[in-house]
Design goal:
This protein is mainly β. The protein has no helices and ten strands.
């Protein structure tokens, strides 16, 4: 695993995601309480940025059609999306967030 710094904790809004690019992937970095999650910043239904949607109850909403995705698993929790999004391993060190884009937690191959 090759963890790379993606942002500081202070940069992540409480009810939104933070858009970041790391290597070849666009990522959405989100917080739920003390936990930090990183998913590919691409809705599996409409191919738009998930980082532009709202975050609540460990889910991120696609702003275009309202699909919801579980930040822990990447699985859609509401239609119209039926396919999961890639989720990535995260480490928080001091006040910094690191992500490993070489591996996905849910086996989904990032686009």
């Amino acid at each position: 695993m090759a963890f790379e710094r993606v942002c500081s904790l202070d940069e992540i809004p409480s009810d939104e995601a933070l858009a970041r690019t790391l290597g070849r992937y666009d990522l959405a970095v989100a917080r739920d309480g003390d936990e930090v999650f990183v998913v590919q910043d691409l809705c599996s239904h409409a191919a738009v940025a998930l980082s532009e949607g709202e975050v609540s109850n460990c889910q991120i909403e696609c702003w275009l059609h309202g699909s919801m995705f579980d930040l822990r698993t990447g699985k859609p929790t509401s239609l119209p999306a039926t396919e999961p999004v890639a989720t990535f391993p995260v480490e928080v060190r001091d006040n910094d967030v690191y992500v490993d884009t070489d591996t996905t937690l849910n086996g989904v191959t990032p686009a």
